[in-house]
Amino acid sequence: MAFTNEQIERYSRHIILKEVGAKGQKKLLNAKVLIIGAGGLGAPTAMYLAAAGIGTIGIADADEVDLSNLQRQIIHQTKDVGKPKVESARETMEAMNPDVNVITYHEFITSENIMDIIKDYDFVIDGTDNFPAKFLINDACVMAKKPFSHAGIIRFKGQLMTYVPGQGPCYRCVFKEPPPKDAVPTCKQAGVIGAMGGVIGSLQAMEAVKYILGVGDLLTGYLLTFDAIKMEFRKVKLPADTHNCAVCGDHPTITELIDYEQAECDGVGL
User: Fold this and answer.
1) What is the set of domains in the chain, with CATH numbers?
2) Can you tell me the distance from the alpha carbon of 270 to that of 154, in angstroms, rounded to the nearest whole number?
């Protein structure tokens, strides 16, 4: 494919990077990334991926925009209150970059539909806010051999890790199963500082871009945590539990997807 003059100008700051160049920008334009969750994490991730020129971006979310979302979910505006989040997100991304093809899924992600939704994407972003969804995304991506970025935020803290098939531990290697109901406060109860979504969501976008380009070190085998109060990042080595993990281990005991009981806006085990 040949770049138009407008594309050369739009992506000029990418093209001059030796790690990207024209070849790398074409990879981005040909890539397909799915974002599950159009909230605090999915919003900045979606905007940076659209700006970067990811050719196809899927975005899945069953909710409508609420006034309380706007403190952190920067892809939505006050005029969007009451509108499906996926439609608000699509409008923002398309206005930002007409090169991007946005596919929306205004539905809950469940064991019934997730495999069919993720199958055509190169990379998956977990931007959800509850443990059941995170375990479902992990298990589906492991079974489908799809790389994905996990993240979570609560209060002034955030965390993320990246799973690449055959290269490191999955989410379930680290967090064996969802905590008991009501064991962890929701962000409605505990709160979350708005900019935390921007910090961690931007890092998820970076992981997706690096994976597509094939450059740099991904957070495979590591959990990156951020404490905004202390302004401190920590990168913790995570050994793969290849013998005992119930989904990615040598002898998996979880061979079918599980829909755990949903609880809105859980914390993330920080």
Assistant:
1) 31-237 (3.40.50.720)
2) 8
pLDDT tens digits, one per residue of 241-264: 667 899 998 889 999 999 987 655
The answer to whether the CB of 192 falls within 8 A of the CB of 155 is yes
87/154 Cα distance (integer angstroms): 26
pLDDT reported for residue 183: 66
| CB-based contacts of 152, cutoff 8 Å, min separation 6 | 41, 129, 134, 158, 159, 160, 200, 267, 268, 269, 270
Instruction: Output the six-digit token pair for 53.
Output: 């020129």
Strand 148-154: give its sheet, edge to edge.
Answer: 101-105, 56-60, 32-36, 123-126, 148-154, 157-163, 222-227, 232-237
* Strands 101-105 and 32-36, sheet pairing: unpaired
Query: From CA 195, how far away is CA 219, in angstroms rounded?
Result: 21
Question: Tens digit of pLDDT for each residue in 146-180?
Answer: 999 999 999 999 999 999 998 989 999 988 888 87
State pLDDT tens for residues 116-151. Answer: 999 999 999 999 989 999 999 999 999 999 999 999
Structure tokens given for 183: 């064991």
Q: Is the dihedral of CA 119, 173, 177, 45 positive or negative?
A: negative
Q: How far apart are CA 41 and CA 106, in angstroms?
A: 17
Whose structure tokens read 């905590």? Answer: 179
Q: Tokens for 154, please give them.
A: 């609560």
Measured CA to CA, the distance from residue 223 to residue 236 in angstroms comes to 5
Q: How many CB atoms lie within 10 A of CB 113?
A: 14
pTM for the model: 0.94
Residue positions counted in the chain: 270
